[in-house]
């Protein structure tokens, strides 16, 4: 009996030592990230500002030592017609190392025009009428960030899935949110902006939404923790 107990104690310490060693290795690896310890500005809608979203951003702080300033505002979208738009948020920002455009679902749910990836670019002479589209709003944000800080690093988080209708989560429903997500990625490709496709990679679906969401659009703390782990892996080595 005593021998069995001693064996278990040895196993426990071996496992603990191994786990601690792995944690230390992971921490050292993340500290080698180009983005470790950087100042970060976040722009978005309610998905980036509700209290539960702090469980995601806390992981950025914990694992990447980031200093975060959040300009997000509930109801905001990229379209100039959508709430305190992300265009307005960017206009209020100062100089940071990193700027994160965290797409909400608001342009989709409020049926703002998707637009074209060329909206408000050199291709249309920066036509301000196009600022009403999602694409025009994204191009505006990117252009103004670079004008404010030419050495800025910009990352884009796409809209995540929602569950208020089929189009908000079905990637093959062509009139759904997927068209907004695809346009988000097209605009970023034009400018060479790294994209985290949260719609595709988030891992949320009709079967686990009750575990990770507290309403059809917004995640709960557990959902944001899951998302935050994905965001950390992206931000560490984009």
Walk me through what this model shows:
- The chain is α/β, with parallel strands linked by helices and 238 residues long.
- It has helices spanning 2-31, 54-64, 86-92, 106-109, 134-148, 178-191, 198-201, 209-212, 221-236; strands at 39-44, 67-70, 98-102, 153-157, 195-196.
- The longest helix has 30 residues, at 2-31.
- β4, α6 and β5 form a beta-alpha-beta unit.
- It has one domain (39-236): Rossmann fold (3-Layer(aba) Sandwich).
- It has a five-stranded parallel β-sheet.
Spatial extent as radius of gyration:
20 Å
Total number of domains: 1
The SSE string, one letter per element, is HEHEHEHHEHEHHH
Q: Return the CATH topology.
A: Rossmann fold
Query: What proportion of the residues is helical, as a percent range?
Result: 40-55%
The CATH class: Alpha Beta
Tell me, briefly, the overall form: globular
Q: CATH homologous superfamily, by name?
A: SGNH hydrolase
**Main beta-sheet strand count, sense and barrel state:** 5 strands, parallel
The fraction of residues assigned to DSSP E strands is: 5-15%
Structural class call reads alpha/beta
